[in-house]
Amino acid sequence: MTAYCLHMEQLPPLMAWWRKEYDVYVPVAAEGGHYDFAPWREGTEIAFDYDLAYNTLKRYFLPPSEDLLTFDLASYEAQAVFEDPKQILFGVHPYDVRAVNQLDQLMEAGAPDRNYMARREATVVMAMEPQRVADTAFWSTIGADVVSHGYDLHFTRISPANFMVEVGSVKGEELLLARGPLPAATAGDREAARKAHQKVMDLSRSNRLNFDWRHTPKLMEKGWNAGVWREKAELCLACGSCNVVCPTCYCFNVSEEADETLKTGRRFREWDGCMLVNFATVAGGHNFRTKALERYRHRYMRKGKYISDKIGELGCVGCGRCVRACTARIANPREVFNALWEDQANAD
């Protein structure tokens, strides 16, 4: 793979150049000791060593609220709405790139979600090797520490003043070389990048699954009546925060509303979540999952089996956002999967 060496001091001029055409978002320190992505401006201090962005990056492709069409109640005409701002996401960790790749597959399947696809095609993803690991993360144990596609550039900090930048697309290389040629990465640079990856992998070993993650779908099938569902669900507040921060949750609800004159209106969608009480309510008021246990188990079946059945990979990338966001401290996929594994081992 083509790779270049970039000095730290060359990055701000590149950012400024990119910003002429794109909205550029970078990781920054936020309130409460957290990190999040924010627009880059001259002087913005980029958190190159952030451990985890508090909010999921899916908001750049699937906004929390989005108009789908507008309509005229007098003429009965409707106009589809597609917004596709040109944007660069800089510093995306590999597990989050993997989450975007997963959303790409799910949103393209069947009738492609054109609103999502329009935003995705207008977005440049610049990945970055993590330097630290969140205490709630377990991405390294489910194979989400590396990603082979879905990014345009991949940055690895190989020294305090240098990055090795791997090229993932023609567009990425054009943006990287926009202000002039760069030296090709040497064998020494590639070895330094390998060591940087190994270093962060060593840091990630404290949170692990107790089994090969590939067994998870079968584990979920056998664990339908496991005690862990009742034990955890008794404390669930049904707030849906685990859904909101999850980078692979993509459910939404569609509504319509007219303006105060009843002349025009809009159809829009908003994020929804399977942990919310009314998520499974259908016409007539019937709710398929009224109990917290049913909703809690359903969420893990989605992450551990249903999505795997569709695309062959877990619907969880091990980022650990849900663990941090859960006020009741029950949303921990690693704990749940390990509990199911131990139950199964005892049963055998």
Rg from alpha-carbon coordinates: 22 Å
The oligomeric status of these chains comes to: single chain
The proportion of strand residues reads 15-25%
The unreliable regions are none
Helix content class: 25-40%
Would you write up a description of this structure?
The protein has 348 residues and is α/β, with parallel strands linked by helices. Helices cover 33% and strands 20% of the residues. It has 11 helices and 11 strands. The protein has helices at 11-19, 94-108, 114-121, 170-176, 187-203, 216-222, 227-233, 241-245, 292-311, 321-325, 333-347, and strands spanning 3-7, 23-29, 35-39, 65-72, 77-80, 87-92, 123-128, 153-159, 162-167, 252-258, 264-271. The strands form 2 sheets. A 7-stranded mixed β-sheet has the order 1-9-8-7-6-2-3, sandwiched between helices. It has a 4-stranded antiparallel β-sheet with strand order 5-4-11-10, with no helix packed on it. It is globular.
Summed up:
The protein has 348 residues and is an alpha/beta fold.
Descriptors for this entry?
single chain, 348 residues, alpha/beta, seven-stranded mixed sheet, four-stranded antiparallel sheet, 33% helix
